[in-house]
Structure prediction request, 624 residues.
Amino acid sequence: MATRHSRAAARMMMAPAVVLLLGWMLVPLTMTLWFSFRRYLPMRGGDLGWAGFDNYVRFVTSSTFWPSIQATLIIVGGVLVVTVVLGVLLALLLDQPLWGQGIVRILVIAPFFVMPTVSALVWKNMFMDPVNGLFAHLWRFFGAEPVAWMSEASLQSIIMIVSWQWLPFATLILLTAIQSLDREQLEAAEMDGAGPLSRFAHIILPHLSRAVTVVILIQTIFLLSVFAEIFVTTQGSFGTRTLTYLIYQRVLESQNVGLGSAGGVYAIILANIVAIFLMRIVGKNLDA
Amino acid sequence: MGRIVLEQVTKRFGDVEVIPPLDLTIEDGEFAVFVGPSGCGKSTLLRLIAGLEDVTAGRILIDDADATNMPPARRRLAMVFQSYALYPHMSVRRNIAFPLRMAGMDKAEIERRVQAAAAALNLTDYLDRRPGQLSGGQRQRVAIGRAIVREPTAFLFDEPLSNLDAALRVGMRLEISEMHKRLRTTMIYVTHDQVEAMTMADKIVVLHAGRIEQAGSPLDLYRTPRNRFVAGFIGSPRMNLIEGEEAARHGAHAIGVRPEDITLSREEGGGIWSGVVGVAEHLGSDTFVHVHETGLAETLTVRVSGETPCTHGDRVWLTPREEAIHRFDAAGMRIE
Ligand SMILES: Nc1ncnc2c1ncn2[C@@H]1O[C@H](COP(=O)(O)OP(=O)(O)OP(=O)(O)O)[C@@H](O)[C@H]1O
Ligand SMILES: [Mg+2]
Prediction:
């Protein structure tokens, strides 16, 4: 794309895609903004006119708002920590020449192909059920009192389920990064007297920093809108009501589209704050 | 100290025996160069000495201590890799300091040694750059800096100059030679390059399919190659090897004459062999004349000092210096 001519041609050819994408994004965004300034109660009279900033004020001042932000950040943060740490360890393990590597790799990727709703149901009913779940049996086997996961450790349970789903993604990205590491660097470090832990800290980890950045950024985008896992497990109770779930409740359960839309705008703002924040911390890894 | 002894060292990758049992002694302070065709096991041998590969059988002694099963770090050897293997996320300073930091040396001493190494290698202005911001030659210097700060018992180089352009290669070659004269530390150096081998080495080790064909001083190998392989490998342009009747006349299966041991004449009957010039390469200081249709070998190469007015198609007459003819038997071994 060097010459002026080819740049113009490129712009022409890209125009339809750009227009389509803009429409795709702008139409819902504008509608959300529009509704957020209306009193719109579908079951109780429909569009009742201009509401000014009422919806925005009500959404933030409701006692559920700040806890929902907190729950969102805890889930996102928890899942990021778990997936990155375990992802690095698993990637290191899968990089070793081990027997049945092909099968192990497929097994590791498998959770990514399971639909969130299904995996959450499986976890809830087969593993975490306080009476019949596998964990309950395990606890009893060791003579402990089974944990009622969904009510007593609700946030941890959801972090566990979501982490399980996202671990393959993190592992895959990190594995390819590890495999691109120049072996001679590791050998040089070995000759320089670095033990396995120093090699990990001084050579492997810095090499992985860019991949970790990518994992964190991509996962954050998706994790901010986690929904199905909460919907089929706790339904937002026991402190697991995230911002996304709160918006869902406002729109569908309370049938208040205006209030929900205001929440949607807040969600956009939150996503941007988190994104800017992350870019600041980790984004500099992407320049190098 | 830095005496390295290999006793019956063998390396197998699966079923493939890359290094058959091999004995070699490298004396303290010696500059040993491994040469040989591609794939002959030079790198493998170096990595065995470094401890980056395990030996299949045999023993490696470093300063009379058995190092066969010692981890690389404890062998006190430093290696310079062909790809330099610098740590890309660390500054030049941190790269050079890395082995010292790993050894737990105190900060002031590290800084002193890094500064000294940087000064010796002309790197002082680049200490805060990353390897990615350096030229090939500078990277090479950083890799050497990282090796010398540790004051190792021996240096191992695996084709360190092969990624550099010709001019830089000559410069770095001299720098490494000078460094060796100054430090007097044992060095083992792997190369493809004839000139590097001849000019730098105290001892050249010619390898072929994992076997040592001959080990000795460069001039030793040049003057009295032990067999046809060494005769053909050492020296540039290559020695002329002649088989058949002419060899039989000398009581050998094959005879070899170096290009500079043949005199060339343009006068009718001015030599015992005659042929037609294919190409004459004029280097200014010398001329390499490639002569065809001699009935002895495909091509005979003759080196003439200075300029000679030969061109393609000229008929020339050649005379070898009798006392400079190398004779080889049917097994390829030298006949004295
Ligand atoms: N890890 C390995 N597994 C199997 N075979 C190997 C391995 N490493 C090297 N070899 C084989 O051992 C032989 C010697 O390899 P080596 O790298 O020592 O050659 P070299 O002399 O350094 O060649 P070059 O001059 O091209 O670098 C080659 O035939 C190579 O295919
Ligand atoms: Mg090699």
